[in-house]
Structures are given as C-alpha cells and as structure tokens.
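RETRY 2/3 - previous attempt timed out on the joint model. Re-submitting the same 416-residue input unchanged.
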Amino acid sequence: MNNRTVEIGVGLFVALGIAALFMLAMQVSNLGTFVSADDSYLLEAGFENIGGLKVRSPVTVSGVRVGRVAAIDYDDEAFEAVVTLRIKSSYDGFPEDTSASIFTAGLLGEQYIALEPGGSMDNLADGDRLQLTQSALVMEQIIGQFLYSTSAAKSGE
Amino acid sequence: MLDVLQNLGRVTLGFFQRLGRGHLFLLQIFATIPGVLLRPRLVLTQLYAVGVLTLLIILVSGLFVGMVMGLQGYNTLVDFGAEDSLGVMVALSLVRELGPVVAALLFAGRAGSALTAEIGLMKATEQLSGMEMMAVDPIQRVVAPRFLAAFISLPLLAVIFSAIGVYGGYFVGVDLLGVDDGAFWAQMQDKVDLRGDVYNGVIKSVVFGFVAGWIALFEGYDAVPTAAGVSRATTRTVVHTSLAVLGLDFVLTALMFGE
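RETRY 2/3 succeeded.
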C-alpha cells in the first residue's frame, strides 16, 4: 500500500462525506425550498384565532405554495393575532381585496394559510395588510355548536 | 467482614484511579495536538486506516437500515393512508438518531477495537517504551494522530450513513412500493430542518467521535501488557464505547430536542 493509494482513499472519503452533507442540506432539509429575504416581500394579516398555525407554515394560492409564515404576533389593541407572510417576489400580482383563510391539510394535518385573490384592479405591495381574513376552525367550537344545535332542535319538537 | 470492605474500597479506588488516568491521558493528547498538526501525514495514514477502511461497512449497513425503515414504515403508515410521509419518517430518524448512533456503534466495532489492539500490542511488545528511550513521545507520535483521525472520520461516516440510508428508503418506498416520488421528497424537505435536525445530528457524531477515539486509545494505552490483557482491553473498548454512545445519545437528545 503506497502513499498514493492512501491519499486517494482519504481524498475519496472526505469528498464523499462532504457530498453527503451537501445532499442532506439541499435535498433532505428545507434549505432548498427556503424563501430568502432578497427575492420576497412581506404582507400582514390579522386573525381572530390562528389555531395551530406556526412560523414557517406554508402560504398557498390555489394549492400552490407561494411563501411561508414569517412571524406571528399578538396585537393587544385590536385583540387579534397578526401574522406576517413572506411571499416570493415572483408572485407580486395579488389584488388589494385578496382574502386569507387558515385551513387544515387533511383531517389532522398541519395548518396553512390559503390566499384567495379578489377582483380589485390595484395590487398589494410590500408591507400591506390583508383586510379580509377567516380564522382557523377550532374543533371544540364546531363540536360545541353541533351539540347546541341538536339539543335546540330536540327541545323545539 | 473487613475483607469485604477492603475489596469494596479497592474496587472504588481502582475505578477512580482509572478515571483520573483517562482524563490525564486526554490532556496529554490535547497538549501534543499542535505538534501533530505540523506533520499531517501521520494523521492522513490513520485517516485511511480508521475512516476509509470503515467506509464499506458504513455504506452497506446504511443502505440496508434505510431499506428496512422504508419497508417497515410503509407497512405501518399505509394503514393510516399516510404513506406519503414515509420520506419524513426515514429522513428524520436517520438524521437525528440512527445515523450518528449506528455509525458510532459500527465504528467502535470496526475501528475502535483495532486501535485498542494495535496500541495494546505496541505496549506489550515494548515498542512504546522503545520510543521513549529514543526521546520520541509515543503520545504525540502514535496516539494523537489516531485520536484526530477518529475525531474527523466519525462525523463524515455518520453523514454518509444518513445520506445513503435516505436513498435506501427511497429505493424501497418509491421504486418498489409505489410511494409518490414528489411527495416523498417534498414532505421530507418540508419537515426536516437544516439547523434543528441535520446540524444537531452532526454535532452528535462529533461528540461520539471524540468519545470513541478517547476510549479506544485509552484502553489500549492502559492495557495490561499481556496477550490476555490486550484481549480484555479490546472487549472493554467495544462495550464501553457502545454504552457511552447510547447514554450520551440520550443526554444529547434531551438537550437538543427536549425544549
């Protein structure tokens, strides 16, 4: 075993290790899909209840992911949650009356924000606030309403 | 009665003496590392022996661990209609736990035992004393390059293990069992965080590399210089490294992912 074999072997080993780390970073983790701050803009939306929405949750339009939730804060004057959305700047043509709703992917899946474009001629710009929002559906409230309405129907008979 | 007490005392003192010798040994290694860095060829040769020759077992076991996880995960997830999450499951378990831990266990068996046997035999045949006679510091010449090699190669091996395991899971899940190709990667990229998951896995394997190298070299250096002593030291290396890796893994996991 001469020096050349050893050096080629070690070089191969280190290159393979770096390639594996690169593969884990780009292919397996979310680095590849990350929306960078350079080519994106921010929108705000106020919600009465955000349910299980988290920072980094997806923002979709017609099911296509256009951005992510950048921050979630609570506004103690308006008594509502303020969600900051980071949208890719290639999608900059949303009308002013676009509405935002919090939906759940599947029955038990994670929650995401769905944008629905309106019909206004003016477009949203960086830092604008979405006026039309729909809060997350909270399971307990739905069950409570259901129980209330069935018991009301029974007593009305 | 007094004999029992004396035995207990001797065992306890022996344990702490060994522990102290182990830490002094580690400090000696640290002190000689700057000198070793001036002669990188010593480290290079050891990287070949410790890292490159371990590569084959890491590649094969990584591939099969990933394939088995793909198979088992699919059978469980398909009952819930969640087979699209197979990629997440395979990638997260490999990157967070199985990659660093299994790579470290294999490393202890393949490379750690060899290091102990080599150093132990050098001690038994008085090669280490011979070096001291020639005013060559055996720790700097023999031990420290091997320690650095273990410290460098285990993180690389763990990352390779995880990457090949993900492809093993992909092969079984997508090619054989028919999970959707896009969903496999997309869900994985959605849920695996670079800093939270991949980097923490690498940090784990750095710690394991440190511990595995330390234990293997100390057991060899501290071995009773006879054939039976070297054999006992080799066994202890594998057992102690495995226990230390599994115990440390729990502690590190609790620190990293416990919140």
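The mean pLDDT of chain B is 90. Closing ticket.
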